[in-house]
Design brief:
heterodimer, A: about 400 residues, alpha/beta, Aconitase, domain 3, 2 domains, five-stranded parallel sheet, 18 strands, B: about 160 residues, seven-stranded mixed sheet, 6 helices, about 20% strand
């Protein structure tokens, strides 16, 4: 019997062949925590009797969730992270560096075929590289810092075959919203999603990150792409499943049939075609997050907003996913276009997505966002409505003040 | 053990509803009790007593990886969580902080009921009805018996399956 990508990577890290359903103790190639999860992980690490992580070059901390610090309590948690990293020679990316998941990929802390665990649910993003990556809580992460290993159940895999070419105006975000709509919030719980198909030839690394990112919105343990068509600045061994691998389910999606998608309040699987909500009035537009804060997302928004102005009474927030992206957007003029259109730039980080600060909505505000979640209260106010969409839809809608199909607005 | 039920038989109660992200960035764990489940039931904090049992629906604890979610329920006084199913990260997190968690897909447990629970066997007695929960893997039973993953690893230094 052949192996799925998940079984191959977990077997390589367990030191023996494992198959879906078995428990395994695996070696970890990297451990990451953010300022939401690191302070608690450091406390648990100390309780375990830990002093220095098993491998400081593989232990990465990122200050991104409440960054720069909104108050003294959080400032002191950040300080604690800096002090630990300094003492143990672990790697720390300080405020303004960007969102942990973007940094992990940009700075090559994760590569194809590796197994990386992060104390953040969107750690699944690195599946874009053909890596097995998943999120855990703080204490599990502390266990990895102590031992360099973790235990897990080898998940069954759902095969997702993406075929065809997306129509103009259709992005990776529309593809993943379609998938989340089909599978549902609970449909991939305890399972891996494995992506293949002819569409992969047209999907950039950023597109793959957008799609892999939302595996956890279906309960998935991982969302892994074959490396077919993937271009990276370094050499790597291809990551592919065996042709006779066994899947719990196989879903084929004709990407050329996908319309722009919207997740309505208050769940990421409450999906409809844009046509159902066109004309819905919005108060705030938000482009950013680990799902859609990359240079290509900002460039797409700029191509729609060039020379235009936000609709009256609309606020627009943009958070580049990393300082690197911010710098590129400054250098190529993208930032100028968006700022001149009336958008407000927020430091690279998680910003309004997690509801801590830098853009908390008011009561009854309607927000159109490129994020991955719209649960009640997600952005910091349970009395607001959050719709999720692609950067193209958010940019087009910011110009009209109502949910707008980017192709119609052209 | 015996405890009174707070029933929230709602699917997909996510971690943002268990403890909103804006309250999670602190090591003062007791502060979570002031906000636990506040967007779902603003009265929860006043109703819950030490030793009570929370009963949820399908996919309980979905969303973020924040361990602050099971911690918030624990510091509020919840001694056991029962749900029809759990999201995987929440499930691990609860065991890792030593909070027992039982998966019972089909049940008719009512709000306010007094349940009797045998953790070792995973048996739940509700009046004349008895439910069996999905068994935990041995490694999780041992983590729970040690009081959580931190004491488990302090003692064993590594994992044993």
């Amino acid at each position: 019997m052949g192996q799925t990508i998940t079984e191959k990577i977990l077997s390589a890290h367990a030191g023996h062949d494992v198959k879906a359903g078995e428990l395994a103790i695996v070696d970890v190639d990297g451990a990451m925590a953010s300022d939401t999860t690191a302070p608690l992980a450091l406390k648990a690490f100390e309780e375990m009797g830990g002093s220095s992580p098993w491998d400081s070059t593989k232990t990465i901390f990122v200050i991104d969730h409440a960054s720069p610090a909104p108050n003294e309590r959080i400032a002191n948690l950040h300080k604690q992270m800096r002090e630990f990293a300094k003492r143990t020679h672990s790697i720390l990316y300080d405020e303004g560096s960007g969102i942990c998941h973007q940094i992990m990929v940009e700075e090559e802390h994760v590569k194809p075929g590796q197994l990386v665990i992060g104390a953040d649910s969107h750690t699944v993003t690195y599946g874009a590289l053909g890596a097995f990556s998943t999120g855990v809580g703080s204490t599990d992460l502390a266990g990895i810092m102590l031992t360099g290993k973790t235990w897990l159940k080898v998940p069954e895999s759902i095969q997702i075959i993406l075929n065809g070419k997306p129509n103009p105006g259709i992005t990776a975000k529309d593809i993943i919203l379609e998938i989340v709509g089909q599978i549902g919030l609970n449909g991939a719980t305890y399972k891996s999603l494995e992506y293949s198909g002819t569409t992969l030839d047209t999907l950039s690394l950023g597109d793959r990150m957008t799609i892999a990112n939302m595996a956890v919105e279906m309960g998935g343990k991982a969302g892994i792409f074959e490396t077919t068509g993937l271009e990276l600045p370094y050499d790597f061994e291809p990551v592919l499943p065996d042709s006779d691998a066994e899947y719990s389910q196989s879903i084929t999606i004709d990407v050329s049939a996908i319309r722009p998608k919207i997740a309505k309040p208050h769940s990421p699987d409450n999906i409809c075609d844009i046509d159902e909500v066109i004309g819905t009035k919005i108060d705030m537009a938000f482009i950013g997050t680990c799902t859609n804060g990359r240079l290509e997302d900002l460039q797409l928004a700029a191509s729609i907003m060039k020379g235009k102005q936000l609709a009256p009474n609309i606020r627009m927030l943009i958070t580049p996913a990393s300082r690197n992206i911010l710098n590129q957007a400054m250098a190529d003029g993208t930032m100028n276009i968006l700022s001149e259109a009336g958008a407000t730039f927020i430091p690279a980080g998680c910003g309004p997505c997690v509801g801590t600060h830098l853009g908390v909505p008011g009561n009854d505000d309607v927000i159109l966002s490129t994020a991955n979640r719209n649960f009640p209260g997600r952005m910091g106010n349970p009395n607001s409505d959050v719709y999720l969409a692609s950067p193209a839809v958010v940019a087009a809608s910011a110009l009209t003040g109502v949910i707008t199909d980017p192709e119609e607005s052209n | 053990m015996v405890g009174n039920v707070h029933l929230y038989d709602i699917d997909n109660i996510d971690t943002d509803r268990i403890i909103p992200g804006k309250y999670t960035k602190t090591l003062d764990m007791s502060s979570f009790a002031d906000h636990c489940l506040e967007d779902l039931d603003p009265n929860f904090r006043n109703k819950v007593q030490q030793g009570d049992i929370l009963v949820g629906g399908w996919n309980f604890g979905c969303g973020s990886s924040r361990e602050q979610a099971p911690i918030a329920l624990k510091v509020s006084g919840i001694s056991v969580i029962i749900a029809r199913s759990f999201s995987r990260i929440f499930y691990r997190n609860a065991i890792n902080i030593g909070l027992p968690i039982l998966e019972i897909p089909e049940h008719n447990i009512s709000n306010g009921t007094r349940l009797q629970i045998e953790l070792e066997s995973g048996k739940v007695v509700d009046g004349d009805t008895e439910y069996s929960s999905t068994p935990l893997p041995q490694v999780m039973i041992e983590i729970l018996n040690e009081g959580g993953l931190a004491p488990y690893l302090k003692k064993h230094k590594t994992y044993k399956l």
